[in-house]
Specification:
By secondary structure, the protein is of the alpha/beta class. The protein contains ten helices and five strands, in the order βαβαββαβααααααα.
């Protein structure tokens, strides 16, 4: 398994100055509007929401230096690239904010829950439902804490997306499981042994405690949501590769497609609010 190297701005500058321009890929995973406002010279733009469809455009033989606005989306992108077999991956800690001399948080690394590969489709779906529920509850909680109607609406929209994901998961369960359960019974089973992990294994409360204030703006809210969705996509793709059952693999690949669609939707929201 490759490792992801965390580079400070000084380390990144030293790396870039000591390398030929065509010997590595400087990858900007922000939105196009962010890139147009300002970017590191020589950077190639591949927004996080488009990255899962554009892996083949990147040279696997070259080191990658990935950055975003504050280091969160780039870390999620780095994990996605690692899961697809890229080996020499470097993340710019603090992103453009740190590059330009502003204060920056440390590496924003998200968790990853265990998956043995022996889970049945039903077990995968139940676990996924529980994680979706945690993230939805987080968004509802943030809506309750919001001070403006616009912020309340944003968080409730995000919570609504998770509700649709939960609908899909229940429908998928009814198609793949021999056991017949009502929606209420299904949810009770899914949440009975649930942890505080959200999609892709992200402990949302712990993450927010580590980075207070990092995602205060509407743009920051959407950045956080994008990081979590990218982590979920990475989780399902990795699990699909390890699944021992073809049925389980099919379920995981379907869940990955759901997360990819959600990631693109969040990117559109981010563009609208830029």
């Amino acid at each position: 398994m490759s490792t992801i190297t965390q580079m400070t701005p000084d380390e990144a500058r030293k790396f870039m100055e000591g390398s030929k321009p065509d010997s590595f890929t400087l990858l900007d995973v922000r939105q196009e509007s962010e890139y147009e406002r300002d970017h590191i010279p020589g950077a190639r733009l591949v927004p996080l929401s488009e990255l899962p469809d554009r892996f083949d455009e990147l040279d696997r033989q070259r080191p990658l230096l990935v950055y975003c606005a504050s280091g969160g989306r780039s870390m999620a992108a780095a994990a996605l690239l690692q899961g697809q077999g890229f080996e020499d991956i470097n993340n710019l800690v603090g992103g453009m904010s740190a590059w330009e001399g502003d204060g920056a948080f440390g590496p924003m690394e998200l968790g990853m829950i265990a998956f043995t590969g022996a889970e049945s489709p039903a077990e995968v779906i139940l676990k996924a439902y529980a994680m979706e529920n945690v993230l939805q509850a987080f968004y509802v909680q943030r809506a309750d804490m919001a001070e403006t109607m616009e912020r309340i609406e944003l968080f409730m929209e995000l919570a609504g997306f998770e509700d649709k994901h939960k609908d899909v998961l229940y429908e998928l369960y009814t198609r793949t499981s021999e056991e017949v359960m009502s929606r209420e019974e299904f949810e009770d089973v899914a949440l009975r042994n649930a942890s505080d992990m959200a999609e892709g294994g992200v402990p949302v409360g712990e993450f927010m405690d580590r980075f207070p204030g990092a995602f205060d703006s509407d743009h920051g809210v959407l950045e956080l949501a994008s990081m979590i969705e990218a982590q979920a996509l990475d989780y399902y793709l990795r699990c699909a590769m390890r699944a021992r059952s073809e049925d389980t693999r099919d379920v995981l690949q379907l869940l990955a497609r759901e997360e990819k669609a959600h990631l693109k939707l969040l990117a559109r929201y981010m563009d609208k609010r830029d």
